[in-house]
Amino acid sequence: MKNIIFILVIAFFSAFSAKAQYHKHDGLPHYVDAENLRKQGQFQKAVAEYDKALRNEPSNHNYLYGKALAEFQSRNSESSINSLVSLFKLKNDFAPAYLLLAQIYQQTGEFDKAIVFYDSAAKYESNVENKLKYKLIITNKYIKDNNFKIAFEKAQDMFRLAPKDLKIVYYYARLANVNAHYQEVVNAILPLDAIIKANPAEMPKYFYELGFAYFHLGEYAKASQAWDKAKTGEFIPKIERFSGKHFITIATAYYKFRDDKEALHYLDIAEKIQKDIVDSHLLRAQISKRESSKKNKEIKQHLEALIVSEANPTKKEKYMLDLIEIYMDSEDYEHCLKTIATAQKEFSDDLKLKFSKAMAYYKKGDYKESEAVIQDVLKNSGNPQLDFVLFSAFNAKKMNNIPLAKQVFTRLLKSPYRSLAEIELKSLK
């Protein structure tokens, strides 16, 4: 009797277990039908089948995801979002759901929200390739917004995941250079030297970034070696902007506007990049001559005497121009301005004299008077004189009119003074 009861109990629980297993997947047939309908583009019918599946298995997050996907594909974003919110209550680490939510917000133009959910999708995604794909979308969004600091942080995350993926390394290196993390560029690219050289078509862009990093680390010889591997196509003019000749051009411009301190700074850079440049020696000689003129009172006295006694107008004009230069070098701006006024009255009111007049006022600290001279030239000149346009920018900077200074320096980005304008714009940030 006991054996019979035992057998009956076992049979009862076996039947109960089998029934439970059956009910466990009661929604599966509806889910399969829903998936097929969704793939056929019959989204409303698919949603109805997903609902049937969920009535039988309300805790199945895959059914909710399928439903949300069908709603998204039928352009019912609000319903799709509601389904995904319900899904997250069941499983809050389901990467595909975060990805879908990101795509919904991206489609509706809510990019800031989309980025948050791309970030979550990347966090919970187990597939590294997909994780990188989502992080790349996020990085590009921050680049587009000119938020290079956050873009670099996202690129760092990608680099940690795939330090040998050349595409990721390039993103990382470029953003590291933009954010002045130059040593990190070197550390990222050098270990991949052989892999990069095995891709000759792509090689120049990596070695350009490496050269850029070395240059800003002050390792000019290594920068030159890296750039030798990048001298092709679009990189040739970019590399030229870091040559010794380029920095001498900048130094010469500052010298012309009597900022000898800046001129010497860029001369030093030029000479570190390239030794024994003829133009460098010439410019240093001119700066030294200015310094010696400050102390040489006899030259001024002789020229002053010559101007008084000279009858030949051509010679007198030359002596007067020489004296203006000497007065300027010796920082005697009052006598400089008086001599300019005499020269303008007796000889010609040319642009060289007007430039000297504006410069004398500028060095004297009378920036409004300097600007008045400049504007008179610009208004009465058919083509804007670039020297006077640049002078106007320097005046605005000295008068602390930063918006105007930025505006004028920006105009000069398409002129021969581009490099100097870039330097000045950086100093105004």
By secondary-structure content and strand pairing, the structural class works out as mainly alpha
Number of strands: 0
- What overall geometry do the principal axes of the alpha carbons give? elongated
- Following the backbone from N to C, one meets helices and strands in this order, namely HHHHHHHHHHHHHHHHHHHHHHHHHH
What is the CATH fold-level name of the domain at 350-429? Serine Threonine Protein Phosphatase 5, Tetratricopeptide repeat
What's the average pLDDT? Answer: 89
- Look at the structure and give the CATH class of the domain at 350-429: Mainly Alpha
Question: What proportion of the residues form beta strands (DSSP E)?
Answer: under 5%
Topology:
Blueprint lengths: L1 H23 L3 H12 L3 H14 L4 H13 L3 H14 L4 H13 L3 H14 L3 H17 L3 H14 L4 H13 L3 H8 L3 H5 L5 H14 L3 H9 L6 H6 L3 H13 L3 H14 L4 H18 L1 H13 L3 H17 L3 H14 L4 H14 L2 H13 L6 H13 L3 H10 L6 H10 L2
Descriptive overview:
79% of the residues lie in helices and 0% in strands. Among the domains are: 244-294, no CATH class; 296-346; 350-429, Alpha Horseshoe (Serine Threonine Protein Phosphatase 5, Tetratricopeptide repeat). It is elongated, with a radius of gyration of 37 Å. By secondary structure, it is an all-alpha fold. It has helices spanning 2-24, 28-39, 43-56, 61-73, 77-90, 95-107, 111-124, 128-144, 148-161, 166-178, 182-189, 193-197, 203-216, 220-228, 235-240, 244-256, 260-273, 278-295, 297-309, 313-329, 333-346, 351-364, 367-379, 386-398, 402-411, 418-427.
